[in-house]
Amino acid sequence: MGNLTHARTVVYNVNYHIVWSVKYRREVLTEKIADRLKVIL
Question: Fewer CB near the terminus (10 Å): N or C of the chain?
Fold first, then answer.
């Protein structure tokens, strides 16, 4: 288990799993776009 966050009446741990799947699974993420997504996400 990762870091737990303690609030007044709760304790929680939020994790995200993002799957990016495009139609026909063509490669549409160029290196430039992938780098930008990494910055944003």
Answer: N
What is the pLDDT at residue 39?
Answer: 93
CB 11 within 8 A of CB 5: yes
CA atoms within 13 A on the CB side of 13: 4
Q: How far apart are CA 14 and CA 2, in angstroms?
A: 9
Task: Compute the C-alpha angle 31/37/38, nearest 5°.
Answer: 90
Would you give the DSSP letter of residue 8?
S
Question: Is the distance from CB of 34 to CB of 27 less than 8 angstroms?
Answer: no
